[in-house]
């Protein structure tokens, strides 16, 4: 029975089948289930657990540190372990960790348990991203992955205020645990390993070691910026005097924009290359953040969050597909996932160092500056990849 479910390392699975891709995308959404709604989760820790704004930043970083650590470990373990068995373990960790988090009122204990949860969710994201990166059309499939996450986020943000009123933080933690339980039913549809499933993207080339390093550094910096902004975005809204439900509604609507952004990447793909959408996505996010300084009404704040979320979710698939195109082995994208999670892990803690008593202006400037640095690091490897691909095409 278990052998039928888990298979062996040599078990073949079509990574391009709809069921396999759906299972991988579901695991990614479960893995990101806390982070996707992190602004609301952070707000809940402040309102219902009584933690301070600085403390919740460190707790968010603790969870994302566990997340990042496991993605780093999976770089070395991914080719040696059965993915189905490993994903089952990760789901179990997520279930247990979220249940153990209920009723905890100590900052230190809560942070430790959330670190434990992060180990499980980070593993889920690492495996699921590896599967999608091996598919024939990573741009499109990463886009659909982000769409699923955005749908989850839209529902989550809309429901969170009601869930908090009915069951406070424990209700949300139990939901996270139950969501992970659902994932167990889909483990059998995942590949048991990446051994027999390598499909190099059509535009994959080998760029220089320097450009690979720049791209990975850019990935880290981009998500460091995201970690700085995303963890505190809900609090930025409420600190401007905007009501909690109005802020939650802004996030819900922004998830619809996120779906559109991810669909843009999925539908357009590389028709216009990757440099243009990455430029629009990253520098557009910087512009949106600068408008945040004047966001004193629910309408203004909502419009900024909508634009920001649209651009983020349009950019993300292009970033992942870019990493998949920089070598022929898929290793760069695996390292990129680690860079992504490390950035998200350090971001909230870095922002917490700059959280003053009188607002979040420094946090916004910090995020905007990091986005600019990320753009400069990423754009040159993208242009190098395009140049090599063009030379190869001309030589045929």
Globally, the shape reads globular
Helix proportion = over 70%
Major β-sheet profile? none
Low-confidence stretches: none
What's the architecture, going by CATH?
Answer: Up-down Bundle
Query: What share of residues are in beta strands?
Result: under 5%
Can you identify the CATH class?
Mainly Alpha
Element pattern in H and E = HHHHHHHHHHHHHHH
Average pLDDT figure: 87
What does this protein structure show overall?
Helix content is 77%, strand content 0%. It has one domain: Up-down Bundle (Growth Hormone, Chain: A), CATH 1.20.1250. The chain has 15 helices and no strands. The mean pLDDT is 87. It has 396 residues and is mainly α. The longest helix has 46 residues. The N and C termini lie far apart (51 Å).
């Amino acid at each position: 029975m278990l052998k039928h479910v888990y298979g062996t390392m040599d078990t073949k699975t079509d990574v391009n089948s709809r069921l396999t891709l759906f299972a991988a995308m579901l695991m990614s959404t479960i893995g990101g289930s806390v982070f996707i709604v992190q602004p609301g989760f952070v707000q809940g820790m402040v309102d219902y657990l009584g933690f301070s704004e600085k403390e919740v930043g460190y707790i968010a970083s603790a969870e994302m540190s566990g997340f990042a650590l496991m993605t780093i470990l999976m770089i070395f373990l991914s080719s040696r372990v059965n993915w189905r068995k490993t994903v089952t373990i990760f789901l179990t960790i997520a279930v247990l960790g979220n249940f153990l988090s209920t009723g905890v009122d100590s900052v230190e204990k809560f942070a430790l348990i959330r670190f434990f949860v992060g180990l499980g969710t980070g593993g889920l994201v690492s495996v699921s991203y590896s599967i999608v990166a091996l598919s024939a059309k990573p741009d499109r499939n990463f886009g659909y992955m982000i769409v699923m996450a955005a749908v989850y986020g839209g529902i989550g943000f809309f429901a969170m205020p009601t869930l908090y009123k009915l069951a406070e933080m424990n209700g949300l933690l139990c939901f996270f645990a139950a969501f992970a339980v659902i994932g167990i039913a889909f483990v059998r549809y995942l590949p048991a390993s990446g051994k027999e499933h390598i499909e190099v993207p059509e535009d994959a080339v080998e760029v220089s070691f320097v450009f690979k390093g720049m791209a990975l550094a850019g990935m880290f910096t981009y998500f460091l910026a995201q970690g700085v902004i995303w963890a505190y975005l809900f609090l930025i809204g409420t600190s401007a005097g905007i009501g909690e439900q109005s802020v939650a509604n802004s996030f819900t609507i922004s998830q619809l924009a996120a779906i559109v952004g991810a669909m843009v990447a999925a539908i357009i793909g590389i028709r216009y290359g990757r440099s243009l959408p990455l430029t629009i996505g990253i520098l557009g996010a910087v512009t949106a953040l600068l408008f945040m300084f004047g966001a004193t009404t629910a309408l203004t704040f909502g419009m900024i969050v909508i634009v920001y979320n649209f651009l983020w979710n349009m950019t993300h698939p292009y970033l992942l597909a870019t990493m998949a195109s920089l070598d022929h082995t898929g290793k760069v994208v695996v390292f990129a996932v680690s860079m992504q999670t490390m950035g998200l892990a350090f971001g909230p803690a870095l922002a917490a160092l700059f959280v003053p008593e009188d607002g979040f202006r420094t946090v916004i400037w910090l995020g905007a500056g990091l986005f600019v640095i990320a753009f400069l690091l990423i754009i040159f490897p993208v242009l190098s990849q395009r140049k090599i691909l063009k030379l190869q095409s001309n030589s045929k």
